[in-house]
Each structure stands twice: as structure tokens, then as C-alpha cells.
Write a structure and sequence with these properties.
Elements (H helix, E strand, L loop, with lengths): L6 E9 L5 H9 L17 E7 L2 E7 L9 H12 L6 E7 L8 H8 L5 E6 L6 H14 L4 E4 L8 H11 L17 H16 L9 E9 L3 E10 L2 H8 L4 H18 L2 E10 L7 H6 L6
Parallel strand pairs: 1-3, 1-4, 4-5, 5-6, 8-9
Antiparallel strand pairs: 2-3, 7-8
Length: about 300
């Protein structure tokens, strides 16, 4: 940056599940904003992380993975991703060496029609070779001719600094949208639910993690301690038993790991109590979508 003009903009991150969007988001922002696990469909909401410097403010937005919805929750997740196409100053479309462009043609057609800078980031290049990468670059050039292509490895941070440098060059001239000490648009309770849900994603198999929603019932912050009560909702009684585990061992492990992560996140001692309740078929419920905050703004 050679001028003294302040630049700000919304840099929205979209792509299919399990291509490393959340890991990339955390690297770009420099904070652990998004859940990043090995499982697909980890991100359910549109999550903003804000990078501030004296001369710029970059508002990164991570979105749920693009997929063909099978139930109400996935419909809402897709709407979060589509909303990111409407207010982007710069769009990052994240793919990888395995994904083919024909996976979500309807969504890509909307991307092709955008009149903002588009950066296609081909992630996980450390798992491939130069010949395959060259073919993949040509494949994406044919699909989105106006896009700039960046091969990266978010896991090894290869190419991420180059992406960030290009974003800074493309940012429009603008005053800051948020106070300079703001680093996300989400409240503290949101990150409590995400951290608990992350531990469930890590420790339970098959459908269980995707049938879970977490709600913070109580968040009481003191000078050196935060007391938190959270409810883990599942869809069926059988799932409740799995979450709790024999003599409560499984739930205790999740609660302990979440507490440790929350203490790192907030920099305070955490007292965390987790309960498990059944909300039958909540993922297909209009009422639950509103109650759990999945209606896009």
C-alpha cells in the first residue's frame, strides 16, 4: 500500500464443505474465529472476523459449505452462503484438489455473474503434484474466467500471505465499518456454543454431531470467573443417551475439553455446566430455525 487513504471492505469466503474454509478464515484474521475440524458441514452460521490495521479494516466472513439441502437447517445454511454473494467487495471461492466445478453448478452460476474481484483458492495442494495442480488451475479458469487463481495449503500456511496481500491491494477506499477494537460481529455466547459444538464434532461419530444444537442458558461474567450454563439439544432420546454416555463419562469429557478451550479463549477461569435435552426433529422445524438463530438477516 503506497497511498495514505483508508481502505475497508467485506471479504466473503464461500465454497463447498470440507475444503478448509474455516482454517483459512482463522489464518487470515489471526484469531480462532471459526470451528475448524476434519468433518464437513462444521460451519452453520455466517461468521465475521475483522482484521484491523491503522490504514485498513478487512471484514472477513466465513459461510457454511455450499450443498444441496436435505432439511430445513441445510436450507438456512445455503441462504447464509448465498447472502455472502450480495454484499461482497471481494469474494474468496475456496476449493481443493479433489473437488470438481460441477459439484454445485447453480451456486457457481451466481458466482460467475458477480462484478466484484473473485479469488479462487485451490487448497490442499500439498496432497497433489504440479501436473495435477496445473490441470486444476486450467479447469477453474474455464469455469470462472474473470477470477484470479491462488494455489494454497491452509494447513501449512503456504500461499496465504500472498492471498492477504492481494486482498489488501483490492480493498476499496472507505472508512472503517466497525470500531477499530472490534474483531467479530458475534457475541460472547455465540463462541461458547461453537466451542462446545466443536468438541461434540470431535468426540462423537456418524450423525450425532449434526443432530446437535447448543444454547447458552446463562452467562454470568465476574472479574476473574465466568459461570456458564449450556443446553445441548438433540433430536431423539437415543441420541441423548449417546451424548451423556455411560455414567455421564462422555458428557464430562466434552464439558472438560470445552471448559479448557473457553478458558484460553476468554482468558478467565470458566465454570461450565452442560445439560442435554431432546427437541424432536429440530433440524426440520421452522420454529427451531428461528429459536436457534438460523434465519438469515
Amino acid at each position: 500500500m503506497t497511498d495514505n487513504k483508508h481502505r475497508s471492505g467485506f471479504v466473503n469466503i464461500v465454497g463447498n464443505p470440507n475444503v478448509g474454509k474455516s482454517t483459512l478464515m482463522n489464518l487470515l484474521v489471526g484469531e480462532r474465529i471459526s470451528i475448524a475440524t476434519f468433518k464437513a458441514q462444521t460451519t452453520r452460521h455466517r461468521i465475521m472476523g475483522i482484521l484491523n490495521t491503522p490504514e485498513m479494516q478487512i471484514c472477513f466472513s466465513d459461510t457454511p459449505g455450499v450443498l444441496k439441502p436435505n432439511y430445513k437447517l441445510q436450507e438456512q445454511m445455503l441462504q447464509f452462503s448465498e447472502s455472502a454473494l450480495q454484499d461482497a467487495d471481494i469474494l474468496l471461492y475456496v476449493t481443493d484438489m479433489v473437488e470438481t466445478p460441477d459439484k454445485n453448478q447453480d451456486f457457481l452460476q451466481k458466482v460467475q455473474q458477480l462484478n466484484v474481484p473473485i479469488l479462487v483458492l485451490i487448497n490442499k495442494i500439498d496432497l497433489s503434484n504440479q501436473q495435477a495442480l496445473s490441470a486444476k488451475v486450467e479447469e477453474w479458469h474455464a469455469v470462472i474466467p474473470q477470477a484470479e487463481i491462488f494455489p494454497i495449503s491452509a494447513l501449512h500456511r503456504f500461499g496465504v500471505d500472498q492471498v492477504l496481500a492481494r486482498i489488501k491491494e483490492l480493498l476499496p477506499e472507505s472508512p472503517a465499518y466497525f470500531d477499530k477494537d472490534t474483531w467479530t460481529d458475534k457475541p460472547a455466547r455465540f463462541f461458547v456454543t461453537e466451542i462446545i459444538r466443536e468438541k461434540i464434532l470431535l468426540y462423537y461419530d456418524k450423525e450425532i454431531p449434526y443432530s446437535v444444537e447448543v444454547v447458552v442458558e446463562s452467562f454470568k461474567e465476574q472479574e476473574k470467573l465466568i459461570r456458564i450454563e449450556a443446553v445441548i439439544y438433540v433430536e431423539r432420546e437415543s441420541q441423548k443417551g449417546i451424548i451423556i454416555g455411560h455414567q455421564g463419562v462422555a458428557l464430562k469429557r466434552v464439558s472438560t475439553e470445552a471448559r479448557r478451550e473457553l478458558e484460553r479463549f476468554f482468558g478467565k477461569q470458566i465454570f461450565l455446566q452442560c445439560f442435554v435435552k431432546v427437541d424432536k426433529d429440530w433440524r426440520s422445524s421452522e420454529r427451531a430455525m428461528r429459536q436457534y438463530g438460523y434465519d438469515p438477516e
